[in-house]
Amino acid sequence: MTRLADYFVVVGYDHDKERSGSGSGKIIHRFPEKDWDDVPFHQGLELFCQPGGWDLSSQRTQPSFFVSVLTDIEADRHYCACLTFHETVSMTPKKPDDVETEEEGGLVHHTLMFAPKSIALISRLDYFETFRNCLGIIYTVYIESMNVQLESIIGNLLGSVHIPPPGGPQVRFSVGAGDRQSLQPPLNGAIPVSRNTVAMLFQQLGIHNVLCLFCAALTDNKILFHSSSYSRLTDASTALLAILFPLKYSYVYIPVLPNALMEVLSTPTPFIMGVHSSNKSEIQELLDVVVADLDSGYLSIPEHLNLPMLPDHIYNRAHQELTLVLSPDLQNADCAFPPPTPSPSLQPMLDKEIRAIFMRLFAELFMGYRSCLTIIRIHPEPVITFHKGLFLFERGLSGDDFLQKVLGGMSFQTFVQERGPPFRICDMFDEISANIQETLLQEGRKAERIIKNVQDIARHLFINENPNPQPYSQKIPKPCDGAFTRIHIPTFPRIDCVRVQEVIDDGVKKASMKAQLQTIRQPKSQFVPYGPPAGNITAQRNIINNNARRLEVLRTCVNSIFENKILDARKTFPAVLRSLKSRVVRNALTRELSTHAHQNRAMLESQQFDLIVRLMNCALQEDACSEEHAVATALLPLTASFCRKLCTGVIQFAYTCVQDHPVWASMQFWQATFYSDVEKNIRALYLPPDELKADKPDLNEAFTASPDVVRRTQGLLYDKSALEIAAEQIRIWPAQSEEERNEMISNEESTVFSQAIHYANRMVYMRVPLDISKGIKNVFSHEGESGSSNISQSIGGSDSLDGESGFEEGDSSDPAGSVIRFISKFVDKVCSEGGVTAEHQKSLHQMIPGVVAMHIETLEAVNKESKRLPPIKKPKILKPALLPGEELVLAGLRGYLLPDGREEGTGGNLGGPQLLPAEGAVFLTTYRVVFKGTPCDIQACEQVVIRSFPITALTKEKKVSISNTPHIEQYLSEAVQLRACTFQLMRIAFDEEVNQEKIEHFRKTVNRYRYPPSVFSMFAFNGVTTTNTMLQTHKQKDKTATLRKFASRTFLRGSSRKPGLKNKQMSRKGQKYVLPGEPLAVPRRATLPKPPLQDLTDSRPNSLYEEDDIILWNDINIVYATVDESEIEIQTSTLKASDTLSADKLMDRPYVQDYQRLGLGSPGSTRQKSTEPFRISEVNLHYNVCRSYPALVVVPSTVADESIRKSLGKCHRQSRFPAITWRHPRTKALLLRCSGFHGKGVMGMMKSQVVQNTSTGTSTETTRSIEQEKYFQSIVANTPVGSHHNTDSLVSLNSVLTPTSEATGSPPQGSESPRKVGGGSSAIYRAMTGIRGSGGKGMNSFRGLTKWGSLRTTPSSGPPSTLNTDVGARLAHKTGGQQPEGGQDAKDGAVMPTSAHKAALYVFGEKSQMKAIKTENFPKCDFIPCDFNEVRHVKASFKKLMRACVSSAPLTDPEVSFHKLVEDTEWLLQIQNIMQLAGAAVDLMDIQGSSVMISMEDGSDFTSQVVALTQVLLDPYYRTIDGFRVLVEKEWLAFGHKFTHRCNHTAAHQGSGFAPIFLQFLDAVHQVVNQFPLSFEFNQYFLKFIAYHYCSARFRNFFFDSECERFEYGTLFEDSRTKSGKIGERGDGTSKGIQIKSLWDYIDSIHLKTPLFYNFLYAPSIRDCVLRPYSDIANLRIWDYYINEDLRTGSTYDREVVTKATEPNEENEEGPLLPTDRRIINGCYDNIQEAQLDMFRWLLEEMSHLETDLCHFPMKWKFVWEKLESPMELQSTRTTAASEMVKQHGTSLHKKTTIEILTKGKEGSKSQTQPHHFETHSYVTPTYCDYCQHLLWGLVKQGYKGMKCSECGYNCHDKCQNLVPKQCGKVKISRESSFRQSQTSMEDVIRVTPQSTPMISGGQTTPTYYDHSWQSAQVSETRTHEGYLWKRGALLKGWKQRWFVLDSTKHQLRYYESKEDTHCKGFIDLSEIESLQLSAVALPGAPKKAEEKAFFDLKTIRRVYNFLADSKDHADEWINKIQECL
């Protein structure tokens, strides 16, 4: 019997502690005054009686009732039922101390206030309704002044009312106030009583939100309820605990949290709490709490909180069942004739139905949990553990995060402790859990059966709470209505404490006598039903049957090993290793090995031992990812059984060879295995021996997949399970005598102790390494972790065993101590749980150090003898062929080349032999990293596998973990992965003979050779002798060169020139080197005049460009690092420079000769003719204008050198002024390149300030501007289109939409017909093309650009404005005063800029710089902003491309394919960008005749790409081998591409990252070659050859960052062709073969002998054409250079190596390859192009062999090829309609791209991005998809329906609709034309006439119009209101101005970065707005000059947004607009 209430308390307002309006409560009475012995009184009770605070009220308040929950120190819950009412208090106002008192006799006014008072009951029982009744009776007696003593009521309540335990009878009682009450205890106290709280919780929050709360509570997350009702908070918390049954919540539980304890919410532990809604603002700052609003039904889950949810199938089932219960009419809502809907259950029964669903959910979630229980003690109390890993594996939920956290929580541990014993009192859940599997199968997801079963459980739950069906009429006195509103209410009377205590004592005395007479029947214990197993035995046996063949092979192999038939075993050994990936086979292996071990066959021969150990290692490796540790558990005893004899008295056991696996370092594994063995011994302790069966089951029957093999085969081996035996022992325990009990306890304790000793020894065996000097590999404990084979992923960074352990195990210097600490921790854990006595534990701890020491001593002899074993015969190390001058740095380190993500060489889907893994050795030379070996697969071991790459191509080196690999008979845990920018990957696992020191030495040496201190240490400079000082000069400049240093070079430099300051004289020893004004001179003992360029510009990696760090080279005051001139020397036999640098010595440079070929003048001002418009200037002859430019540059003749030197160079970054590189032979248009213009960055502003401080600052800026304008005018004047400017439209490009040439005659589309395009398109694909409209984008016009229609100028009433070209007139402010066109439109408010005409010079530049240029100062020039590939983007894209093309692991995700990965790299998009911009330059120069200037970044990266590709497309000379060399020499080497910096040649550039700028250019050329195979003399191999060697560092061409550096280091004029014929010698004068220094010489030597680089399809007859390739992604191909490899020779780009690798095969060939000869060629091994010759090469070789046989001197192949007669050329007039339309279609698309670049650049960021409005359209004319360029209409697709935009006319396939960019330009254009019309002359199809009338053949006119106003681009949006607002960011973020758009249609308030931005940064859903009002005060951090009343706040359910408008009126307008939309 238990008291109904333990304490009664009266708590009132404490007037003594009142301070500043906030009061507190105090306990007035408490009964009994003395604490009960079993229940202490709770302190701080007054806080919970008034959670909102003790405040006085000015109004009468109705009495309130709620229940709080208090938790004592023992985690027992006590319920505080509180009834609160108010009493009248007379308050006298107090005066301040400084106010004088009034006269005596004055009136004193009193104020009536109402003070709260609470009466409370504290109880351990949760009978809330009874508490309400009892407190209500006390209040009624008080308020109604009833003739009843309160002392009697309180005394009876505390002393007389006792409640029987659960299962007891109904109690009827009275407290003495004329009341009658009854109380019914539940039948089972373990099942919580919920009343109707669960149903109410679902009504408040909904199904999904409650399920989220349920998951949050199970996964130990913090949960907070808030409501305006305290009772609702308690009910919700009670309901949440009710649905958690059978788990018990073990964390903080405070349903009603007082305001004074709000800081408790910051506790790091999980909790369930409730707060009043008045504190809502305070809980918004909680970042890790799940908040549930009970009043609004909203659940808030923090964004960063990853809330695990139920497994999908369980969640879906629970959601379905809850829907059936809560919404029974939902399933028939859509029925036409719905059946009668059952009425929903009443709320009390509905509550139980919901709880029944959650009980079923837990039963399904924990189904089979009893099969994973392990019992380790039975007496005196059962001790049971749970095998978590086994349960998760058997259920197939190993990766489920939700179940992982649930099983690891405290609640589940309590669950196991309470429900684990097999003999105990059972409840409903035990029955449901035992039958849940059968129940679910019978239901079959049928609603009727589900409802029936749920209602059955609900009925039992209802009966449990209401066991007595007979109603009892209670009588509860209540106060009159409105009693609390009476004017005169007496105060609560004082209670006589003595009287109350007397009544309590009397009641307690009577209750004790009554309890002795009354006996209550206690529930009996019973056997707990076992329930279904965690896994399905039938399914596992089916798996075994499916693996029957594998099991048979395994058995045969193991038997062969033990029968010493090693050769037979090795035949099937690889197959067995592969089969061990199956879990069934692994367990079968353990059973088979155990069988042989029991047959006394454990002593093995050496080869037998090696194979058995290999099988064990492989099985452990494959099983490492399993948490159940099945294989490790089974192999643990076998490791100490199998052994081999090393010598007399020395035996090596298998455990010394399997120690490296991380499972042995897992404390979880050791504990689970220990408990499993203890359970077996405990079971054997109580099982009679005669019950054991003698026979064993069949092997296949025992092949199970988990360590519970004994448990699963109980029916085969034994009669009873361990739990059954334990249940029987627990049942008979009370009947045992004391002696028998003590004996059982002693036996069990001894069993656990003996197993602890046994496992301590086992742990010593497995943890102490064979070689103690190497330390322990696996020192981390895998607590809660799976035994992963990836050691790096296991608790990385942890130095201790676990977070709570005091034992440090991370000290590798003391392996013995680490082992002792590890074992001691294990012993403490298992012995304390197993009840081992303290004496035994102490003895065990004392034993461990001795065992460890003895084992270490034993292993010393084993280790010593094992090293004497004859090594296993391994393949011979094959040495690689070396190049001339190449030397070995590291001899071969034996290892294995492992397969990577490529399928080549693995024998997979591509077929062929399995070449990888290969066994061999890795070599490091001065040039390459080479692996050479043979395949491990015996079927392919006769072939040689070679993989190599240049050492300078290495981009990343790291250690990786590896899994088991077939064919490798060693346990390999780690490998070294080397990735190269030549798209090669090596994953090398070193052999066991290679120790860790050698591996680390290899890694360090590789990195040292990869990043040498100087380029002269690289292979290309083999033979160069350098001094130490020279190496010091070629290094990275100090990385601490900060803003302060720059200021010292600028401000201090300027200040030193002021009067009164003198420059310090520099001593000779510490002389600062500057750029001299005299010609550079380098004597034979070369003395560098200054440090190299790295020290000044390029060496530091920069974020974007290097525009801010500008050095004015002609300034004599630039300070450099102090270097002694006498120390800088170069002593070399090869690096020689001329004494002086002159123009005559530069005449032989390829780029100078190319200038002369192009007719761009001669060097020197005196040599030029008076009529020549250009000259080769020597202004940069000594590199004092621009160090990164060539010595000779082409400039207009009218531009003086002094102008360039003083002014022009300073207008561009790094002084890279505009230089002419190419001239069109027909249109005379020029191609120029330069760096970007100077911008006003931080450095630019500082420079401008320095200039302004000088007296001539303004005049200097003006002079520079004038010289720049003069230079531009010179270019315009020398451009024919500039001198004969016409009025054609800017975008016409001489009728750009006209696909044919004008009368002036541009050459026809230069391509073979039909062109080769990607995708294998047929001729009909190109022949059926129609000229589509440009699809112009809707963009806002640029100032100076007219609103254009139909791609032509709009007719106007007046002539165009005259452009003033006089610079002097501009300076005198004499600008043209003509009115711009479009005045009428301007009046209407539309933007009508002036008409823009065709320009003579187009400047493509960066957007950030083009905006600042004053275009009116540059007449006839147009500045086009455009996007370009920044270096950082190229680097990131290249990294992704390497990972996609050469992945380190095979792709397993079916949704992530190779092409998807390539698409994500955006590499092809960058190639497309280069080709499009180059194509635009081609059209402008070739069609329009305008000059083009590329002015990007610093002018050496993207600029070089575009300029070089433009010349390839325009000039056929550059498509030859010699011409391409000239192009590279000119645009990349002479104009200063930073090869050393971009390729990271030295350690100084290591951090910048590899930037494949030059590789991108080669890829773009490859795309052009692919589309125009007849237009190039060289083939694809030529481009691959250059791509490989530009980063290989074999040749000296691609070193240094400028021509200036090459001159300084003596490589500029070096000639590799010596008179003796020997090319290059060693520095010591000894010849070492031939080492060619120049790539071009190497290519020439190869090209002279063989047509390796020649394109036999080359047709010089059509070489005079301009190429216009397709640049859309559909026509770009992935370069096979990225994905192909040659395992036969390693690299095909070092021809000497290829020759040596193929010599053995060629020696056997007596003659040329005959047609009847046969040779096996594998695509995964051989180079198909090398092995399978084309017909041309085969015929040439055949002729050479025939001439040799005839004793004739063989002629060179080139001579033979040129003697061949070319076929007659077809007449140009014989062109078919198909070929003509191919040209027309290609030209039109190319021009369309050019127009888009021009218009997009002019519009810039003002363009708007709008979605298309697609509609289904039937095409009857030839139309192409605007996205993929494939046909929409054809002969077989007539009437095909595609998608067409109703706004702009964009056409696409249905499948392409989702991929189309959302750039609808609102262009209305009609494209319907017949197929016959499309075949007419293109001059008649679309021609822009001078009258600007579009002419269509047949005289038909189709009007076209364009609407490019900014407003028209917003048609698809409803913009109710828009404008700029300042918005305050989230936490710790400032104010930012954003463009806001109020959309009443989408009900959103969107905000953009700016008005012109097309993509919104975010939006606010108007439906979530709660309030909108002006702010009371100005918020901190707001912009200055902000109006105080212009702030307003917008509050949503998520957060509060703060805004600032321009003014208060503007803020009011926004508020009104938003409120109108709400």
Short description:
The chain is of the alpha+beta class and 2022 residues long.
Task: Report on the architecture of this protein.
This protein is of the alpha+beta class and 2022 residues long. It has a seven-stranded antiparallel sheet with strand order 25-24-23-22-28-27-26, covered by helices on one side. Strands 46-45-44-43-49-48-47 form a seven-stranded antiparallel sheet, with helices on one face. A five-stranded antiparallel sheet has the order 3-2-6-5-4. Helix 27 (738-767) packs parallel to helix 29, helix 34 packs across helix 47 (1521-1534) and helix 45 packs across helix 46 (1502-1514). The two termini are 61 Å apart. The relative contact order is 0.05.
Secondary structure layout plus pairing:
Layout: E1 2-3, E2 7-19, E3 22-31, H1 45-49, E4 64-71, E5 77-91, E6 111-123, H2 128-143, H3 150-159, E7 162-163, E8 171-173, E9 181-183, H4 197-205, H5 207-218, E10 222-227, H6 230-243, E11 252-254, E12 271-276, H7 280-283, E13 289-293, E14 298-300, H8 312-326, H9 347-365, E15 373-377, E16 383-386, H10 388-395, H11 401-407, H12 410-419, E17 423-424, H13 428-443, H14 447-465, H15 497-517, E18 526-527, H16 537-546, H17 548-562, H18 566-579, H19 583-598, E19 603-604, H20 606-622, H21 630-639, E20 643-647, E21 650-653, H22 667-686, H23 699-702, H24 709-712, H25 714-717, H26 722-732, H27 738-767, H28 815-834, H29 838-866, E22 888-897, E23 918-925, E24 928-935, E25 945-950, E26 954-961, E27 974-980, E28 984-990, H30 996-1010, E29 1024-1026, H31 1028-1033, H32 1043-1056, E30 1130-1132, H33 1143-1146, H34 1150-1157, E31 1174-1177, E32 1193-1196, H35 1201-1206, E33 1219-1223, E34 1230-1234, H36 1242-1253, H37 1257-1277, H38 1280-1283, H39 1323-1327, H40 1367-1371, H41 1383-1387, E35 1401-1405, H42 1407-1410, E36 1421-1425, H43 1431-1445, H44 1458-1465, ...
Parallel strand pairs: 10-12, 10-13, 11-12, 19-20, 34-37, 35-36, 35-37
Antiparallel strand pairs: 1-7, 2-3, 2-6, 4-5, 5-6, 8-9, 13-14, 15-16, 17-18, 20-21, 22-23, 22-28, 23-24, 24-25, 26-27, 27-28, 29-30, 31-32, 33-34, 38-39, 39-40, 41-42, 43-44, 43-49, 44-45, 45-46, 47-48, 48-49
Helix pairs in contact: 2-3, 3-15, 4-6, 4-9, 8-9, 9-13, 9-14, 13-14, 17-18, 17-19, 19-21, 22-26, 22-27, 27-28, 27-29, 28-29, 32-36, 34-47, 36-37, 43-44, 45-46, 45-49, 45-57, 46-47, 46-49, 49-50
